[in-house]
Amino acid sequence: MRRVLLILSAFALLSSSCGTTAQVGQQGGKGKAYVVGFYNLENLFDTFHDEGKNDYEYLPDGANEWTDAKYTKKLQNMARVIAAMKEDNGAWHAVLGVSEVENRHVLDDLVNEPAIADAGYQIVHFDSPDRRGVDCALLYRPEIFKFIAAEAVPFTFEPSRIDWSEWTQEEKDAFRTRDVLVVRGTIDGEMFAFMVCHLPSRIGGKGADLRPRGAEIAYQRAMKLQKEFPGIKIVVMGDMNDNPGDISMTDYLRGKETIAETTDEDFFDPFLSMIKAGYSSLYYRGEGNIFDIVMVNNALANAPAGTFAIQPIIKNKYYGRVFSKPFMTNQSGQYKGTPFRTFSGGSFIGGYSDHYPTYIVIKK
Predict the structure, then answer these.
(1) For the domain that residue 168 is a member of, what is the CATH number?
(2) pLDDT of amino acid 346
(3) pLDDT at 3
(4) How large a percentage of the chain has pLDDT more than 70?
(5) Which region, left, alpha or beta, applies to residue 206 given φ > 0 means left and ψ of -120 to 50 means alpha?
(6) What distance in Å separates the CA atoms of residue 95 and residue 52, rounded to the nearest whole number?
(7) How many domains does the chain have?
């Protein structure tokens, strides 16, 4: 009876804090549930130059005067957010995809921050060809996710449904962006693949075709995984630099708004309905957006009975969450109500990120 009361108490606490219907972090018996999410860490650079990378603004003598003190503050801030999600959910993320990290060194420093060291996160990371030197990575708890293999899928222009005739071969060869990180393993004996993306930027109006191509690359790899490993459960996450309703997400990644309309050739995108309801994970040119998207394939959306499936976690209705707390948010001034970021107007203000993290819950 005491064990039952403890479980019910934990469930009540979780439900009141974030509306989650699953008992996150429960390890034994029925009802295992885990948090899977994504966080753009907004330029997590160390203070050293990486050969071949344009990281000069994040050096002590660079434009941002990026000192050890600022770097330490940035690490502490990122760890504080991850720890706050653990406090809300009652358990650490089982899997957390991240973007805008400079190298393996900054990831090692992050996972060893005292606020999150107890999570025991392991790291999957590859250096990408991005000219600025930012990469994607995956943090995972090895007692939950059993790593098997990983790969970095590069950005290529073919095979594609997009007409690239206006691009010269020289322009194609010169283009550099982040790879799609693909990590495969098992959770409680079920095969999973986690794909972490950071699609090309909107800066200067660029990327109208590049983002759909990035989404197409992720989709092509996901469909290949489904053929190689029938029944595999796939989570595609990342900073897409597009909203859930943009063609990169709805056409090239075949994101669907409801589980009912999701097939084996589609992904269920919980954030399609959430952006319509007014949720935002960042603000771009004064408008709220959700660029930080987590979507799942049909094997997780319409999962066989007794296996892991995505769960509603907000108001027993929405299957995704945009995580924000007052300390992560500007409380006054011109940017009131938007993410409290690291720099503003070129000045270090000691904030967190210009993105809020997003996540889903899977339950068995």
Answers:
(1) 3.60.10.10
(2) 83
(3) 37
(4) 91
(5) beta
(6) 30
(7) 1
Angstrom distance (rounded) from CA 53 to CA 59: 12
Q: How many angstroms separate the CA atoms of 116 and 106, rounded?
A: 14
Task: Tell me the residue range of the domain where 147 lies.
Answer: 16-363
- In the chain, the amino acid numbered 117 is A
In a domain, 237, yes or no: yes
> Which residues lie closer than 8 Å to 286 by C-beta, 6 or more apart?
none
Specify the length of the chain in residues. 364
The answer to whether the CB of 80 falls within 8 A of the CB of 87 is no
Residues paired with residue 98 on neighbouring β-strands, in sequence order: 39, 137
Closest Cα partner for 282 from 272, 294, 293? 293
Positions in the chain whose pLDDT score sits under 50: 1-22, 25-29
Q: Given 3-state DSSP classes, what are the helix, strand and coil percentages for the chain, each rounded to the nearest 5?
A: 25, 25, 45
Asked if residue 9 is part of any domain, the answer here is no
Report how far residue 80's alpha carbon sits from residue 357's, in angstroms, rounded to the nearest whole number: 12
Q: At what angle do helices 104-111 and 68-89 cross, to 10 degrees?
A: 50
Q: Nearest Cα to 137, choosing from 68, 194, 221?
A: 194
In a domain, 7, yes or no: no
**DSSP line for 99-143:** EEE--HHHHHHHHTSTTTGGG--EEEE-----TT--EEEEEE-TT
DSSP letter string over 175-238? Answer: ---PPEEEEEEEETTEEEEEEEEEPPP-GGG--TTHHHHHHHHHHHHHHHHHHHSTT-EEEEEE
Q: pLDDT by residue (tens digit) across 81-131? A: 999 999 999 999 999 999 999 999 999 999 999 999 999 999 999 999 998
Q: How far apart are CA 98 and CA 38, in angstroms?
A: 6
